[in-house]
Each structure stands twice: as structure tokens, then as C-alpha cells.
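Researcher: We're teaching a course module on how sequence relates to structure. For the next exercise, students receive a sequence and then see the predicted structure as C-alpha cells, so they can try to spot secondary structure elements on their own. Here is the exercise chain.
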Amino acid sequence: MNNENYALYRFPYEDKFTTIRQTSGKPLELKSYSELDGKSGFVFAPFSISDKHPLLLLRADEIKTEPVALNGDMPDNALPVNDDSNGRKNYENVFSLFHSKLESDEFSKIVLSRCKVENTPMSLRPRQLFMRACNMYPRMFVALVSMHRCGTWLMATPEILLENCGERWHTMAIAGTMRLNRENDTDKSLALRRDSGNINEWDTKNIQEQRYVSRYIAECLGRYSSDINEVGPYTLRAGMVKHLATDFNFKLDSGENILGKLIEELHPTPAVCGIPKDEAYAFIQANELYDRSYYSGFAGPLNCAHGSHLYVTLRCMRIETAQCVLYAGGGLLKDSEVNKEWLETEAKMETMRRCL
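Model: And here is the predicted structure for the students to work with:
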């Protein structure tokens, strides 16, 4: 499948996956989100649209649904953790720059991310890694995307950017991170805490970070909908970590050719960017010391048989022949500490590392 343009994806809690393949020509390269209106296929969007990283739309020439191969071909041993002292030093330097902008009140929140190259002892088989991710992360949207223009990417992401269920739409605000406690964070326990509204385990920094994202999304949606139902915040399990999340279910006041405008309002949310959005967006691109590429963009089927389901490209890696590039980030506030933020990115990268 290496020379094809294709996408494999599995929705949360489902035991089947879908393959979309474009058999001729090149995927569309779009320059704006408004160009998505009225189109269908599989979308793969970068953090920032550019000539180098266009907004891609894979045409669904072939669509096939198959059962996930359960419990098959799981890795026997974890990939050894490589020393990343140089990466740590670079991260600390950039953290200082980003944090100074918070201390001077130029930003209320800003997201700092990084990438890390992992060499593997043998050639990587993308479909095999996809099946592993499906088995390891049943609660998450898992997708494998491969196109000539962007390379091959695997993600297991918890965050919905935008999806529709009939006339109603759904998005979510996710922010704040803690490591998963396997004894206390069972599905039953998390459901009980969600129903009771209990978020006592979270500190002020994480609650405030998530509140920024929720407020931003509520303001965006208010320009397009007068019928919004907000639920949360609650604790959401996502791979090796957990987050605070708020759901927004809404109906658009006018539904014609509005999807592109709504995407442009929402993306990138403060969960992957910052506040104020435009200033943080520009600052990240100028100072993060690496190219996010398609990390923290979004991906998913658009106007297909089961509607539109676009997810933020988090917990992801770019797959090459004998190595991969892992990506992770975290939201910084004025009271953020560099060591805690570094460890948060390590925990998030572990989601994909476990597949190796």
C-alpha cells in the first residue's frame, strides 16, 4: 500500500474499520477550509495550510469495511526509551521563551509541542501498526493516512473537532492532562464521576486551561447556533493519560455552505494553539523550532455515508521505513512548570510508542 493514496479509520468502540482508497489521479490540494463545502472524501488537514502542507482531500474511489483483527500481532516488548537530553535542552529553551509571554500577559494560554525521532529495529508495516492501535485504544478514533503529498501518518486521538448526527452537530473542548491511574480510572469509575460532575482530582492549572478552551468554543458556536447544549467538564480517558472534556451539541441556524466557516472558526482551538488565537498561532509558527506539519491539524471522513466526523490529529506519528516521528504538546499557563510539561509530552508520546 506504500505507493497508494488511502486512509484507514475506525471509530471509537467499533469492531470494524473502513478503508478509503483513491485509485487514480492525485488527492485534491485545497487552499482554504471553505473549499470543503459541498465536497466528500477523507480530509487530512495540517496545523497551518501552506504550499508545503496543503489541505488534502482523498477521493473515495473505493470504500471497504472489514472487521478489526482482534488481539493479533501485539508487540512482545516495549521499544527501549532513547536518551533525549538534547531534545530536553531545546524544549527547556523554547519553554522559557513561551513562558515569558505568559508572564507578560501577552497570552493567557499557549501550546508548546515537540517531535522526537524513534529508530526501530525492523521495517515498519503501517497496516500492522494500525491494527495494534485499534486493539490498544478502543475508546479512540484510530486512523492511518497515506498520501504522496504528506507521507504516512498514524493517530489514535480522543478529540472531536466537528461531527454531525443528522441535523445536530457535536464538538468538544479537551485540555488538562494527567497520567492514567489504572486502578482508579476504570470505565465504571470514570462514568460515575462524570454523572456526578466530580472533577475534584484536577488542580487549578488544569481546570483553568480547560476552561479557556470551553469558553472559546462556546463563543465560536454562538455565532452560528442559538441551540447549544453544553455538558461537562468531565474526566475523559485517552490512552495512557486522561483529560478534562466538555461536549457541545448544537444545531446550526443556517446549514448551507457553512461547514468551512465553522471549521475556520474552531481550528486551531486553544487546545492546540493558544489565546488570543491569531497572535498565539503566529507566535507558535515563528518560534517552535520545528514544523508541526500535519500534527494538531485534523482528519476524518467528510460528507460520507455516515456523515462528517473530523478529529484533531493528536497522539500521532509519521511513519517512515525504519523510523517514525512522534509528536506531542501541552498547554502552558502562567503557573506551568517546565519539568511537569516535559513529562506530559513524554506521557502523550507513549500512546504511539506502545504500538512499536
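Model: If you want an answer key for the exercise: The longest strand covers residues 168-179. The longest helix spans residues 85-103.
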